[in-house]
Automatic annotation (TrEMBL), chain A:
It catalyses: a beta-D-glucosyl-(1<->1')-N-acylsphing-4-enine(out) + ATP + H2O = a beta-D-glucosyl-(1<->1')-N-acylsphing-4-enine(in) + ADP + phosphate + H(+); ATP + H2O + phospholipidSide 1 = ADP + phosphate + phospholipidSide 2. Gene3D superfamilies: Calcium-transporting ATPase, cytoplasmic domain N (3.40.1110.10), Calcium-transporting ATPase, cytoplasmic transduction domain A (2.70.150.10), HAD superfamily/HAD-like (3.40.50.1000). Its cofactor is Mg(2+). Mg(2+) binds at residues 422, 424, 985, 989. This is Phospholipid-transporting ATPase. It is found in: Endomembrane system; Endoplasmic reticulum membrane; Membrane. The chain crosses the membrane at residues 81-99, 105-123, 305-330, 350-374, 1043-1063, 1075-1095, 1125-1148, 1154-1173, 1185-1205, 1227-1246, 1258-1276, 1288-1309. Residues 1011-1246 form the P-type ATPase C-terminal domain. It comes from Pygocentrus nattereri. Its EC number is 7.6.2.1.
TrEMBL record, chain B:
It comes from Pygocentrus nattereri. It comes from the Eukaryota. InterPro entries: CDC50/LEM3_fam. The chain crosses the membrane at residues 32-53, 310-331. This is Cell cycle control protein. It is found in: Membrane.
Length: 1342, 341
């Protein structure tokens, strides 16, 4: 039997070279689809599989295989310089002339560190392997030629070219080209939440040439070749074409492609052919894994690691020279204790010095903190865990918590200096509420709406008590519209949706609203303006009347006509998808398909004069009649579905037209009661919009009874007052893009049969495109409207509303035909399609007729002003970068307290000259717009711009493009050398987030792109306060202290051996047993510092939030300044001197042997190091106690076991029974008591100064706030220490103070008040004049 | 996907995850710190005084016999290559040197802690493993083989063993009366009983176990004939050898030679004139070292050492002074506070 294989040709033309190397060189390859493939995989190997060269669908995200693990992992670990260094040292031990330790033992730490990392990697890889396996073994239906049906196969067995049948709610196993759908419109709905986080449904279309197939798709009859581009990671682009056997080519677009990972919704069944599989799918190509950044602290640490290397080399060199001299002094006389080389010859002093240099590197290796790198990683993982676990960073409403996507920059959060924030969705909720509109130059202020919003807030503040019905009754009376009852009811149910409402209700509401994108109760409830509502009703009834009497519609007054068009535009000029609430993903279907205008022939056929004259009427009326009949048909068909009831109630109006009419005309329906009012509520349609603005507008239109009831690719159905359902034939949708800043739909008006373009867009763009007609009366009216509208637009912007303009244009048939020709060319073009479509859209959107404008409010998120104020007090500079217009941005900035009314605002616009303020006021705000920003970012001006910006308290950049945002961040980061944080929620913030040192994404309304690019993802902006001020501060101070402690610890321990070199002829001998030497860091002293590094809190979370000023310590890197490293080194050397010389003198003139003397030194060092940590630890939990006790017990247990285990082993120290004997020696205990105390006395004194600093800030704040007179007296030098101490005691400050502390504080304030004030950033400028001080105190007490 | 009504991502509200573990903050107030400092200070001073007095009660008599000075009785012995040189040093005790008296020899400038020196031994050999007798470990090099015969005990430490011997005479009525040194039990018990082992005798002869080996280069006698008087004090279990093998920590050190406990001297050394007869064998001048002998009695805390006592006194006083300063500050400003209130 001859095999009848269809062929697909997948030629991947080169776009990205990424995966090309794996392709077989040639540009084109003919591949056969895998028909012949049965369940057995043997046929694939048989060589007749035409697509076998393409990646199969098996995914493998693991890094290693069983065999490659060890070499590959080692190879990766050796990329870290420290590891190479330690292996080098361990290997050096195998060289006999220089070895210091037993070679095997010297390998232990390196092996330990490497294996810990390897085990961690292995575990991670195993988890990946498990999840891969799970995914690979998911089932899907693949067409099997041999069985002539679809059979279940594992995902991993899916190959390129396979036909796959997908059912509703299935997840796509690969990137699939949609060939057939059970949907009558040949559509397939998918949810892309896993890819981009957007929860709204997206429509995908069957490939055009397969649309007309009435019969079910038969894979056996498929015989086309597909050419498409190479796999790439662009989710929003797919280009290719399908070549049929007859040579016809059809273009393929992203609308035909179903991506791996998406879920099929609302579609019973779909069939597609696999285009990309496995790692070549767009989803996998987008999966880049976690990001690695290096934090500022780590960069600083690396500098000090480098210094450690220098110190090490200096110490080694010193020892080597010392040894050379020591050897030299004996000359030719060899002392009896000298050992000749193995050959029996003398080594010259120089040679032995060189050997010794290498030996010393081995002995002193601990100075380079090998375990530091591992410890830091462990601590960071714990920090991330704690941040994840914080209840206060958890949003119940969305059940989301903070995510740390970058694991290794937590401490950067404590060092931020500049915050760059997006506005929409970040500072604001991005939940749009329709507030006001202007139509045909008349403003409708929607006062009731404003009142309602105010009411929400009132209800919020009153919380639960308003739940009672009594509270709502008066309001119902006060509202006269027929919606009042409904509104009040809503307000009852929705106020609990607010965050401050009861938790349980919020939870329920969130679960309900989760299924629908952008439909919060806020934007759904709109109280219509009565005046406008009347107009709409009026207009509808007139039209109904005229249609009934076959009159021409243009007799309607133009302003009514505009109102009507305005609402139609609001309703249809969007991409909102309609679904019903009970089954959120079930599309409401009412109408049969009519094929859209897709070709010129089609167009000509459908727009022939005969059709236009006679057919048009019939078609318009028929469209109306079909509406009714089909809707009833829909009803009956829906009876089986659970939503049938709701649909029926929705259709009430059609069943009882009289009632509908009555309802429309009488302000309050006579038989209106709550039960009926709530019934439509229950069955209302849900709108799924791509942007919240669209949803807000559609809901607004619905409030005026202009509801969108159905949307198909080729038609939109609208329900209008009096007119009932009208179906607009949707000829084209020209989607929104950020360059055009507008979108348009081209429809055929069902009443006038005119081709009408409705455009909606940013006012700046639309107002330029509006061209008043030249004839006088109309033109004059339009100009007047234009003028008025512009005024209102300015007004809206001043109120902080987002403005949109609505315009329309009527096209003549000829115009349309001419434009359509170009447009179709553009659509079918394969290369440069996007550009051509763009140009085509530009051609259409000209000479518009302005209908009106809308004002949408974007409410501030909870706690934004407070957060901004706190962050600002923490010394953070906050810049807002937004794409919004200047007035809106300024208003939001005022609302969120970014700008202060007292501030002088410098506005930089391209037109205006920069006026440098001659007397720079203290508070200054800078507002700059996009066009000016472009100049300011120019190389020649950027320094000036920065200089101005720095002197301003706040900076606001409006109308900035995503690129400009990232350029601003980059400029500030690079030029000012500051730590920058960028926060945003949308795709337009991604570049900014990536450029900044720390990128934060808001997992909010606008999808997941920002989150995907971010290092941290927050559910709300206000969490930034705790994240930075508390967690950032903690992470930074913990890690900084731990790093310093590590340096100290290692230096202290190594220095002990260094001092000993003076007493052993610089021979590299160590009095500390090599076991202790090697395991001291890894075991004995490892745990307490990890616990402290993870859990220590220098200041409590409450204080940190109350006193944001404390954050400045991190900004100024006060926990870890370069000098601190040296201070720690000096302290380490001092402490080691004490630890060395107390035993030295205590055992002077005794018969002590080497290790009986060295073991106490080790013990003392351990005690000193632990006590040092104890001093550094600010909060002691049981874990700190346990870890310290554990360390000590571990040391003694190990020492006792080790010293009792083998009498003859462990050469050369051979420490048999040493520890046991020491425990019987009173001298040992005496030294253990005195040494740590003596060693730590200076540190303790120093610590008091530093603690004092922190406490002084707390004290100053509190005393200034509460008892300012005390400080005032102090500052005026009128306060003696005595009275100061009295005040101190009197006011019972929160902190229990050391007397020494009080004394120090008094001295501190007495002696250096100026620097303190500067340091603490309280903005104090100390002055002895009373007035000034008063001023300062006033500032502070505010 | 998610079951409704459940917060899948909700963090656990525990003290640990919320970082609210009960914690103690060591912010010590004056009421705690002053007594604490006083207490520590007084305790330290007490310990210091006790240590100091104990140390003061220890008597030490040191005699240098290097013989660098021409007036020194051992001057002629310090010259090179004089075999079996004996010299005598006289000293007198004005009062009873309370016992038990420990007798040490001391070396200075002698680096027993030199790294290559330290490894130059064979622990297996020293634990009596005869397989290592004929094949010493390479650590012993260059004292591994001598004239192609394996050295037992090999290595630099053994080779450089201190070989001066001492005899102490009390002059009673012009005649010398030998004061016996007790050389038993001067090494660590574990060294003598566990760590070091002699080879088992071959055919009943202890010396035969050493067949095929040679003595260390610098030794005059073989290991099995170190102490002709006591058969049990030979081989690796010789007390002096054990003491020597335990390397000193610092370049100036002393090692126990014997105790004076026997007979008439159990109470100590009586006042009188003594003569120390030294069989001077060990060269130290080549490396600028000195040799000395030390008579000392010991207390519970070991030999005479005033350092620790002084250290305790100093630190203890510091603490007390701090406490007093605090108390003054506290007393001066705390009590008016109460009056005010």
């Amino acid at each position: 039997k001859k095999k009848r294989d269809a062929t697909i040709e997948l030629s991947k033309w080169s776009e990205e070279g990424k995966r090309q190397t794996r392709r077989h060189g040639g540009q084109r390859k003919t591949k056969m689809s895998n028909f012949a493939r049965a369940l057995s995989t043997t046929r694939r190997i048989g060589g007749d599989n035409p697509n076998r060269h393409y990646a199969n669908n098996k995914i493998k995200t693991t890094k290693y295989t069983l065999l490659s693990f060890i070499p590959k992992n080692l190879f990766e670990q050796f990329h870290r310089f420290a590891n190479v260094y330690f292996v080098f040292i361990a290997l050096l031990n195998f060289v006999p002339v220089v070895n210091a330790f037993q070679p095997e033992l010297a390998l232990a730490p390196v092996v330990f560190i490497l294996s810990v990392t390897a085990i961690k990697d292995l575990w991670e890889d195993y988890r990946r392997h498990r999840s891969d396996k799970e995914i690979n073994h998911l089932d899907c239906l693949v067409y099997s030629r041999s069985e002539r049906c679809y059979v279940e196969q594992y995902w991993k067995e899916v190959r390129v070219g396979d036909f796959i049948r997908l059912r509703c709610n299935e997840i796509l196993p690969a990137d699939v080209l949609l060939l057939s759908s059970s949907d009558p419109d040949r559509l397939c709905h998918i949810e892309t939440a896993t890819l981009d986080g957007e929860t709204n449904l997206k429509q995908r279309q069957v490939v055009r040439s397969f649309i007309d197939l009435d019969a079910e798709f038969d894979p056996l009859k498929y015989n086309s070749v597909i050419e498409c581009e190479k796999p790439n990671n662009d989710l929003n682009r797919f280009r290719g074409y399908i070549i049929h056997r007859n040579g016809r080519r059809d273009g393929l677009y992203k609308d035909n492609l179903l991506l791996r990972g998406c879920t099929i919704r609302n579609t019973e069944e779909a069939v597609g052919i696999v285009i990309y599989a496995g790692h070549e799918t767009k989803a996998m190509l987008n999966n880049n894994g976690p990001r690695y950044k290096r934090s500022k602290l780590e960069r600083q640490m690396n500098v000090d690691v480098f210094w450690c290397v220098i110190i090490l080399l200096v110490m080694c060199l010193f020892s080597a020279i010392g040894h050379g001299l020591w050897m030299y002094q004996y000359g030719d006389k060899r002392p009896v204790f000298d050992v000749l080389s193995p050959e029996g010859t003398d080594l010259s002093p120089v040679v032995s010095a060189i050997y010794l240099f290498l030996t010393m590197i081995i002995v002193f290796q601990v100075l380079i903190p090998i375990s530091l790198f591992v410890s830091i990683e462990i601590v960071k993982i714990c920090q991330v865990f704690f941040i994840h676990q914080d209840m206060e960073l958890y949003d119940e409403e969305t059940d989301s918590h903070l995510q740390c996507r970058a694991l290794n920059i937590t401490e950067d959060l404590g060092q931020m200096q500049y915050i760059f924030s997006d506005k929409t969705g970040t500072l604001t909720e991005n939940k749009m509420v329709f507030r006001r509109c202007t139509v045909a130059g008349v403003e409708y202020s929607h006062d009731a709406n404003a009142r309602r919003l105010a009411m929400y807030q009132e209800v919020d503040s009153e919380e639960e008590e308003c739940l009672s019905h009594g509270g709502t009754l008066p309001r119902r009376e006060s509202l006269c519209s027929q919606h009042s009852g409904k509104v009040v009811l809503r307000s009852q149910s929705t106020k609990s949706h607010r965050r401050t409402g009861s938790r349980a209700e919020a939870k329920r509401a969130s679960i309900l609203s989760k299924h629908t994108a952008f439909s919060s109760p806020m934007e759904k409830d709109i109280t219509p303006d009565p005046q406008l509502l009347d107009k709409v009703n009026d207009c509808g009834s007139q039209m109904e009347f005229m249609r009934f009497h076959s009159q021409l519609l243009n007799q309607i007054p133009p302003d009514l006509c505009d109102v009507f068009d305005f609402f139609i535009a609001l309703t249809i000029c969007n991409t909102v998808v309609v679904s019903s609430p009970n089954q959120p993903r079930q599309k409401v279907r009412r109408f049969e398909l009519k094929s859209p205008v897709k070709t010129i022939e089609d167009f000509i056929k459908r727009f022939t004069p005969s059709r236009l004259t006679s057919g048009s009427n019939s078609s318009s009326s028929s469209s109306l009649t079909t509406n009714r009949s089909s809707s009833q048909r829909a009803c009956s068909s829906m009876l089986s579905s659970p939503s049938a009831e709701s649909t029926l109630t929705k259709l009430n109006e059609e069943h009882f037209p009289g009632q509908g009419l009555q309802q429309a005309f009488s302000p309050v329906p006579p038989n209106y009661d709550q039960a009926k009012a709530s019934a439509p509520d229950k069955c209302e349609l849900r709108y799924e919009a791509e942007s919240p603005d669209e949803a807000a507008l559609v809901y607004a239109a619905r409030a005026y009874k202009c509801s969108l009831v159905g949307r198909l690719p080729d038609q939109v159905t609208v329900e209008l007052p009096h007119l009932g359902k009208l179906t607009f034939e949707l000829l084209h949708t020209l989607g929104f893009d950020s360059t055009r800043k507008r979108m348009s739909v081209v429809v055929r008006h069902p009443l006038t049969e005119q081709i009408t373009v409705y455009t909606k867009g940013a006012d700046s763009v639309i107002m330029d495109l509006v061209r008043p007609p030249s004839d006088d009366s109309k033109g004059k009216r339009q100009r007047k409207i234009l003028f008025k509208t512009q005024n209102y637009l300015n007004l809206y912007a001043a109120d902080g509303l987002r403005t949109l303009c609505i315009a329309k244009k009527v096209l003549s048939k000829e115009e349309y035909a001419g434009w359509l020709r170009c447009h179709l060319e553009a659509e079918t073009a394969i290369q440069g399609r996007e550009e051509l479509l763009f140009e085509s859209a530009l051609r259409l959107e000209t000479d518009l007729h302005l209908l009106g404008a809308t004002g949408i409010e974007d409410r501030l998120q909870d706690g934004v002003p407070e957060t901004i104020a706190a962050l600002r007090r923490a010394g953070l500079q906050i810049w807002v970068l937004t794409g919004d217009k200047q007035e809106t941005a300024i208003n939001i900035a005022y609302a969120c307290k970014l700008l202060d009314p007292e501030e002088e605002i410098i506005t930089l616009n391209a037109e205006s000259q920069v006026q440098p303020n001659p007397f720079l006021v203290h508070r200054l705000g800078l507002v700059i717009d996009g066009r000016t920003l472009a100049y300011a970012l120019d190389k020649s001006l950027e320094d000036k711009f920065l200089a101005v910006a720095r002197s301003c308290r706040s900076v606001l950049c409006c109308r900035s493009t995503p690129l400009q945002k990232s350029m601003v961040v980059k400029l500030v980061r690079n030029k000012l050398k500051v730590m920058t944080l960028a926060i945003g929620d949308g795709a337009n913030d991604v570049s900014m987030i990536q450029v900044a040192d720390v990128g934060v994404g808001i997992s909010g309304q606008e999808g997941m792109q920002a989150v995907m690019a971010s290092d941290f993802a927050l559910p709300r902006f206000q969490y930034l306060q705790k994240l930075l001020l508390v967690h950032g501060h903690w992470c930074y101070s913990r890690l900084a202290n731990m790093i310093l402690y590590f340096f100290y610890k290692n230096a202290m321990f190594v220095a002990l051996i260094f001092w000993y070199q003076f007493y052993c002829g610089f021979s590299g001998s160590a009095m500390i047993d090599q076991w202790y030497l090697i395991f001291f860091n890894l075991m004995f002293s490892a745990f307490p510092q990890l616990i402290t590094g993870t859990l220590d809190k220098d200041v409590s979370a409450e204080t940190l939030q109350e006193l944001p000023q404390l954050y400045m310590s991190g900004q100024n890197s006060e926990e870890y300044k370069p000098y601190m490293f040296w201070m720690n080194m000096i302290d380490a050397f001092y402490q080691s001197l004490i630890c060395f010389f107390i035993p030295y003198f205590a055992y002077a003139d005794s018969n002590v042997d080497l290790f009986t003397w060295g073991t106490p030194i080790t013990t003392l060092a351990l005690f000193t190091i632990l006590l040092h940590l104890g001093i550094e630890t600010k909060t002691w939990t049981w874990m700190n106690w346990t870890s310290i006790a554990f360390s000590i017990v571990l040391f003694f247990m190990v020492a006792l076991c080790y010293n009792a285990s083998c009498p003859t082993c462990y050469s050369p120290s051979n420490p048999y029974w040493t520890m046991e004997r020491l425990l019987g020696d009173p001298l040992f205990y005496l030294m253990c008591i005195i040494t740590p105390i003596a060693a730590l006395l200076p540190r303790y004194a120093l610590l008091h100064l530093t603690v004092l600093r922190t406490l002084t800030i707390v004290f100053m704040y509190e005393s200034v706030c509460k008892y300012s007179f005390c400080l005032l007296a102090l500052m005026l030098n009128e306060c003696s220490f005595g009275s100061f101490a009295i005040q101190f005691q009197n006011y019972g400050l929160l902190i229990k103070f050391h007397v020494i502390g009080v004394f120090g504080l008094w001295l501190f304030i007495k002696i250096i008040p100026g620097p303190i004030c500067r340091d603490f950033g309280l903005g104090l400028s100390y002055s002895k004049t009373q007035t000034n001080t008063r001023q300062v105190l006033q500032d502070l007490t505010q | 996907m998610k079951s409704e009504g459940e917060f899948v991502n909700q963090p656990d509200n525990t003290a640990f995850t919320q970082q609210r573990l009960p914690a103690w903050q060591p912010m010590l107030s004056a009421g705690i710190v002053i007594p604490l400092f006083t207490l520590i200070g007084l305790a330290f001073i007490g310990i210091g005084v006790a240590l100091f007095i104990t140390s003061q009660n220890i008597k030490v008599q040191e005699l240098d016999y290097t013989g660098t000075a021409t007036s020194s009785p051992c001057f002629q012995c310090s010259g090179l290559s004089i075999q079996n040189c004996t010299c005598e040093r006289n000293f007198s005790l004005s009062e009873l040197f309370e016992g038990p008296v420990f007798f040490y020899y001391g070396l200075s400038n002698y680096y027993q802690n030199y790294r290559q020196y330290g490894v130059s031994k064979d622990d297996y050999q020293l634990s009596g493993d005869t397989t290592y007798f004929l094949k010493p470990q390479s650590y012993c090099s260059p004292y591994q083989y001598s004239n192609n015969k394996p050295i037992v005990p090999c290595g630099s430490i053994a080779n450089s063993m201190f070989n001066d011997t001492f005899r102490l005479y009390l002059l009673v009525n012009g005649s010398r009366k030998q004061v016996p040194f007790d050389g038993k039990g001067i090494a660590w018990w574990t060294d003598y009983n566990i760590k070091y082992r002699n080879p088992s005798p071959v055919n009943g002869s202890f010396a035969a176990a050493f067949d095929g080996t040679t003595k260390p280069v610098n030794w005059q006698k073989s290991a099995y004939e170190l102490d002709p008087t006591d058969q049990a004090n030979n081989g690796f279990l010789n007390q002096d050898f054990l003491v020597w093998m335990r390397r000193a920590a610092l370049p100036n050190f002393r090692k126990l030679y014997g105790r004076i406990t026997g007979g008439d001297y159990s109470q100590g050394l009586p006042a009188g004139n003594y003569t120390l007869q030294i069989s001077y064998n060990y060269p130290v001048l080549s490396f600028g070292g000195t040799k000395k002998v030390v008579f000392s009695n010991v207390s519970w805390m070991g030999g005479k050492n005033q350092f620790l006592g002084i250290a305790y006194l100093v630190i203890g006083s510091l603490c007390v002074v701090m406490a007093i300063v605090m108390l003054i500050v506290y007393a001066k400003y705390k009590f008016p506070d109460n009056d005010d209130a």
